[in-house]
Amino acid sequence: MKKYKSFLKITIVLLVILVTSACGNKNSENSSNSNKVVKADKKVYNWKMTTTWPPNFPVLGEVANKYAEWVEELSDGQIKIKVYGGGELVPALEAFDAVSNGTIEIGSGASYYWAGKTPAAQFFAAVPFGMNCQQLTSWLEVGGGYELWKKTYAKYNIVPFLGGNSGVQMGGWFNKEINSVADLKGLKMRLPGIGGKVLEKAGGAAVLVAGGEIYTSLERGVIDATEWIGPYHDYKMGFHKVAKYYYTPGWHEPGTQFEFFVNKQKHDALPPHLQAVLDAASKKAQVWVLAEFDKQNGIYLDKLVKEEGVEVREFSKEMLDVLRGYTNEAIEEMIGNDALSKEVYESYSKYQNRVSKWSELTEKAYYNKILNN
Ligand code: CA
Known about the structure:
By secondary structure, the protein is an alpha/beta fold. The chain has twelve helices and eleven strands. It has helices at residues 2-41, 60-74, 95-100, 133-142, 145-154, 193-201, 214-219, 231-237, 264-268, 272-307, 317-336, 339-371, and strands spanning 45-51, 79-84, 106-109, 158-165, 172-174, 188-190, 205-206, 225-226, 245-248, 257-263, 311-314. Residues 12-36 have low confidence and may be disordered. Bound molecules: calcium ion. Calcium ion (CA) binds at residues 169, 227-229, 253.
């Protein structure tokens, strides 16, 4: 019995050694194989990014630089992106064409810049009286919005990715009080996109002014008012020195979505794990941009009010209700002539209606009843 036991022990020990060494061999074979695979697959992709922002533009230019860093880190050095500001490689608003034709691999911007190519594009950036950041991110991420965005860009040979969101913007800088729609009559305001069409329905004039010329246009009375982004960027533009009233909320941009856009052939040529890296870094950008906007806008709102004596005013509910009606008219006109816009807006508005009921019950109630007290 004793002999049998020790025989059994020896046999088990031998078996364990055999199995362990076999596994060890197998593992080392595997790891040398996978090492080979990794080495063979360690192709490095050197890309260029062109942005629609001035180089290192606060938040939006910064996130382009960060995206390049994140992608390089997550891809273990396999994708290296060199970032160029607007105008350094191609003019800012030619970024889409340059990525579309493959001259440049990736771009950074906002889809409403491409509304002239395809009107449906603007629904993925900002819709007056539309969804805020939280709701829009939900539509894009799990509500079918992203699939429609891909479809919209597919004919331009481009794959879109989330690139951050500004949150609700400010309503703009005015040289007179805006108490009702009547005060918008004859008002010359820098207000791009659908918001500009709404202003015109209210009797105002939407004036196209490039970013670098807004301050002097406002100072010289070429325009009476302007919108830009929020306290952080607006402070840096110095608008508080040439306009008295700062109005909220930015009904025309309730959560402007930014984007990275990649040439489809360059994207599809990447192995799946590197395609996943582009996606993961874009999600990181989505979180970072809103976080940074919230942080900086809080700091600069304080500066504007406490140090610069800016008067922050709220648009009246009555005026906003009228503008909402004009917005619906403007959108109906827009989608009436374009099947894709209609398809995108149907999905967008259906999602907004449903999610807003939930937001009203929770987020809005929290803001109104708890956060402000
Ligand atoms: Ca804006």
